[in-house]
Input
Amino acid sequence: GESVGLHLPTLSVQEGDNSIINCAYSNSASDYFIWYKQESGKGPQFIIDIRSNMDKRQGQRVTVLLNKTVKHLSLQIAATQPGDSAVYFCAECYDKIIFGKGTRLHILP
Amino acid sequence: DGGITQSPKYLFRKEGQNVTLSCEQNLNHDAMYWYRQDPGQGLRLIYYSQIVNDFQKGDIAEGYSVSREKKESFPLTVTSAQKNPTAFYLCASSITGDNTYEQYFGPGTRLTVT
Output
């Protein structure tokens, strides 16, 4: 199986609430992590990244948290909007890059 | 506008025919990649190139071929030897090929072989 995965294949969130998407990775040597957003029929779009010397990084409405102790990565989206509907997947990088399968974020009106 | 383009967006071919997917980038990136995306699976690496005139097989290279004659271009040929070619193909580029920078993706080409 893949070393990078997501705990939930589908996440439904009320519009306006915060979303948290999780990712587990297996290689403790991974030193760079990326979150991508992929809308239906389109290519993945870079959201935010984090290097292993950090445990938190914030962007516009998004925050990535890295817990190296348990090899866990999360993406938090604040005030979720309809335009956030997409598949989100993480990637871990060491001498190669491995992509997770993705979590579909569904926004409830 | 800097970016990475793929054409065409949709491609239909008959079984037994080779088909070439185009990928162009004007980001001045050294590295380029081809991935295949199937429903419910993560991206799988087909081929990658870290520099002009050089490329390496990825995890699922069988039935595919590439060339990198120019820095900006990395076309992928899906040959008749590829047993299950119908998929969504994504091209990506990165500043370098050492996995220390994010990959930028193109819009993808959906190939259907019947």
Remarks:
- The mean pLDDT of chain B is 94.
- The interface with chain A takes residues 6, 40-43, 45, 90, 99-100, 102-108, 110 of chain B (CB under 8 Å).
- The radius of gyration of chain B is 13 Å.
- The first strand of chain B starts at residue 4 and ends at 7.
